[in-house]
Each structure stands twice: as C-alpha cells, then as structure tokens.
Specification:
507 residues; alpha+beta; Phosphorylase Kinase, domain 1; Transferase(Phosphotransferase), domain 1; 3 domains; 6-stranded antiparallel beta sheet; 3-stranded antiparallel beta sheet; 10% strand
C-alpha cells in the first residue's frame, strides 16, 4: 500500500499499553480529498481540513474513529444519518457534500466554515448584546425549521455546534449525527467532574430517556440562548448527572435577574422554549422563527442596535442609590445588573455590529495607526472594543475627559480592567498589579472593583509563585461570591490549578 493510502489500524489499542495509538491522517489521501491537517477531535470522529482536488476547494473531512468500525450496525447508522443530513440545504446549515469509504474508513466531506464556534466566541466576549443574540437565534431557528420539515432532529444543539463565519452568519453543524453518541453520553452522566458538554443543554425528555422530536431541539436551543444572555448555562453542578437532574426538576433563575436590560418579551420567549413539558413550548420552529422576527423588528433598529427597552441612566442611578440601603451581597448583585445595562447602552451608542457586513466575530481587529478621539466616552469605548487588545485604544478610554454627570465612570473602570488583562497577557505584571491594587483600594465603596482587585491580586501572586497568598485571595473572593469578567475568571481558574499543584492539593 502506498504512503498516501490510509488504514483503519490507527487508533486500535496498543498491545503494550492497552491505550489507543495516535490516529492522524495528515498528509494522506481519501478519494479526491488531500488531507492538510487535523482541525478537530471528538469521541466519535476526527475532523480534518482537506483540499478537494476536483473542485479546487477546501472542505472539512469528518472521519469515523477506527474503534467504531467493528460494529456494522454503527457504521450503517453513521452512513444513514449522514445521508439524511446531506439532504438539508440551507445557508444556516453546514452543507454535507459527500459520504465515502476507503480502506475501511468511513468519512463525510462537508462545508469548511472559516471562523470559530459560538462556544469560543462566548468565551472571548462573555455576555452578548441583545441585537447580536437575536441575530444568531433567528438564523439557528431558520436551520431548525428546515430540519423539522425534513423530519430530522438534531439532538445536540449546543454552542460548539453553532459555527460563526467571518461575515456574521451562524451555521448549525452535525445534524442527525448526535444520536450516534447518545448512548455514550448517557454513560458520561455518572462521571464526577464532567461539567461541560451536552448535559448543560439537554432537554428533560432526553434526560429521562424518552423519545425526542423538534421540540427537544427547541429546549436545548433555549438553554443555549439563556447562556448567551446570562453568561452562564441555566443549570450548573459538580458533575453532568447533577446538571441533568436539574433539567428534569428545577426551574432556571429568571433571565431578567441576570440581565435587567433585556426586554421582558425576549426573556419570555427564551423561558417558553425551555418549558419542562414540550407541549408548552412553541409548536414548531416556524412559530418560534415568527416570534424572533417580530422581536427583531420591535427592539432592533436598522443599524443593528437596540431601539427600545434600554434602561435609562437615571433608572440605573436610582437603582444604585437604593442599593446603598441594602445588604452588601444584594448591592453587589444590583451593581452587576447596572453594569450589564451600561454595556448594552454602549452598543446602542455605536454602530450596531451584529448586522454589519464586516467581521463581527474576528478575534482581534488590527489597531488603527492613531487612536481617533471620539465624541463621547461611550463611542471611545466602542472603538476600543472593535480594536481588540490594542493597548492605546483602551488607554484612550481610561484617559477620556471626565463627564460632569459621572455616568461614564463604569466605562472607564471596565477599560482599566481590559488594560490590566492585556498587561497580564504580555507579561507586564507590575503594570497590571498597579491597576488591581487601585481596584482593591477603591473596593470599600465599589464591590465590583473589590472583586476584580482581589482576582487580579490572586492571579499575579500565583504567577509570582506566592501560591499560599494567591489561594487566600481566591478563598476570600469565593466567600464574596462575586461575578467576574469572563476573561479574568479564566485566569483565576488557571491560578487555582497552579496553586493546587504547588500546595499538593486537589483544585
């Protein structure tokens, strides 16, 4: 057999170790597809980027892992589901081009989507603006409508399966294939420490082992929408089983409590999608799509920004004054709510990027040669957001002339936090430490600053090898139960792991 051919022997257990040998087809050829590199890996299949030589285009090749090839029934289902998915043709569905077999390997050639997935996007951005969420939801709903009309249930709607193109399009991947791994996923529910993946968005009927239909996809879709707006899934737990049980028995915290800036009608729609009884959800994806179109028309302007229901700054200020008479945990919660409201107002002050023809999903935009002076600090903040991790752009927000109303100060402190994270990213710990120390000093009157100051202090102490001090700061932060910026929260988690390793404890 030539070097360009493939063999299903890769991935079989090694007699010496009993573990699977590496399974990598890079440089091999499958039919008309020249494999360039591996771009993804899952429990069922490996995904590769390949050149389709006949049509001179790049495609994604999904190859069934060798350990599944011995089960003829499994292979038959793989081909059947792939064939069914290949019949779906819609701009918001990842297109299946062909199904093939070579040297015993089963593979699917499908559309290669340049960009990333929704999970990665949310990890970078944190909570998403309402116009952008409605933009994504409408596209996913359109894909689910096409699948429903063809009698296909996805069974695994989650952020990882929503791909985002550089033009701002959402595409649903892996239609029909999820049921192949369903048995394995049910086993995973008993494993301690499994906190991510399908159980985060699993419908009650899936958890209960009942039959599924398009309304089951709708529940998972609603749970994903909740995550996009709240910054966290509707249910979390120490393991997948604990999460799954909550989908069966518990009601999620009202979305409005996480995001008071979100219109009530949008919250109602998402909670309806997540009703425990599937008969209480939308009858079909078309009904859901109709409601989403109406919400976009009502709440999103022609420029893609919020046109209604953004809390006024007077209302936010009033909430903040009232909060001074409340206990501290509640003050922190209301302060975070006010922050969410201000962030949405920022989106309304700039050009709406959810509907732009540019690249709203780019990881980083190239900084301008010179940072322009915008007419307001909100506009200056929006420019910095578009500039990614451009230090000068964020400094321009921090140094913006004070506003007599005092309203933009939250913009300024958010920009300071972004600067600190940039400094950490580039190893400039002293500069980051100055910001975090200032936050902690101001924390007596500002719980948000105290939480982020403690978090930054813990991260820097851990990086400097001061693991006991870092752990002490993290313990204090945990007691305060503060909500952190998503980027900083990831850095705190990394510090936990470093501290645990150094102190010989389990994180």
């Amino acid at each position: 057999m030539s070097a360009g051919n493939v063999t299903p022997s890769s991935g079989n257990p090694s007699p010496a170790t009993g573990t699977a040998e590496p399974f990598d087809l890079t440089g091999k050829t499958l039919g008309e597809f020249q494999i360039l590199r591996r771009i993804g890996k899952g429990g069922m299949a490996e995904v590769y980027l390949a050149d389709q030589t006949t049509l001179q285009r790049q495609v994604a090749i999904k190859v069934l892992r060798p350990e599944f090839l011995a089960d003829a029934t499994y292979v038959k289902r793989f081909r059947h589901e792939a064939t069914a998915a290949g019949g779906l043709n819609h701009p918001n569905i990842v297109q299946v081009y062909s199904i093939g077999e070579q040297d015993g390997l089963q593979y699917i050639a499908q559309e290669y989507v340049r960009g990333g997935n929704l999970r990665e996007f949310m990890r970078r951005k944190g909570t998403l603006e309402v116009p952008l969420v409605l933009h994504i939801l409408r596209q996913v709903a359109a894909a689910l409508q096409v699948a429903c009309n063809s009698g296909i249930v996805h069974r695994d709607i989650k952020p990882e399966n929503i791909l985002l193109t550089k033009k701002g399009e959402a595409k649903v991947a892996d239609f029909g294939l999820a049921q192949l791994t369903q048995q394995g996923e049910r086993v995973e529910l008993t494993q301690v420490g499994v906190t991510m993946g399908t159980p985060l968005y699993m419908s009650p009927e899936q958890v209960g082992g009942k039959g599924v239909d398009h309304r089951s996809d709708q529940y998972s879709f609603g749970a994903m929408a909740y995550h996009m707006l709240a910054g966290k899934p509707p249910f979390t737990g120490e393991n997948a089983l604990a999460i799954a049980v909550q989908h069966l028995n518990n009601q999620p915290k009202p979305l409005l409590e996480w995001r008071p800036d979100v219109p009530q009608a949008v919250c109602n729609l998402i909670h309806k999608m997540m009703e425990k009884d599937r008969d209480d959800r939308f009858a079909d994806p078309q009904a859901l799509l109709t409601e989403l179109k109406l919400l976009q028309k009502q709440f999103v302007g022609k420029d893609g920004t919020m046109s209604q229901s953004v809390p006024s700054m007077k209302a936010v200020s009033a909430r903040r004054r009232i909060s001074l008479t409340l206990d501290r945990p509640l003050r922190r919660q209301l302060g975070r709510m006010a922050l969410f409201a201000v962030m949405i107002a920022l989106a309304a002050a700039g050009v709406g990027w959810a509907m732009r023809t540019g690249d709203p999903f780019a990881k980083e935009a190239l900084p301008d040669p010179a940072v322009p002076h915008e007419p307001s600090i909100a506009a200056q903040y929006f420019h910095a957001m578009r500039s990614g991790d451009d230090e000068l752009a964020w400094k321009a927000v921090v140094d913006y002339p004070p506003d007599p109303t005092g309203r933009p100060e939250m913009d300024r402190q958010s920009a300071e936090l972004r600067l600190a994270i940039i400094y950490l990213k580039h190893g400039q710990r002293d500069k980051a430490a100055e910001i975090f120390q200032r936050f902690k000093h101001d924390g007596v009157a500002n719980p948000w600053k105290l939480d982020h100051g403690l978090a930054g202090e813990a991260i820097i102490a851990s990086l400097r090898g001061e693991h006991a001090a870092s752990k002490s700061s993290i313990d204090q932060l945990d007691r305060q139960n503060g909500k952190l910026d998503a980027r900083l929260s990831l850095l705190v988690d990394e510090a936990r792991v470093r501290n645990a390793a150094a102190l010989n404890k389990t994180p």
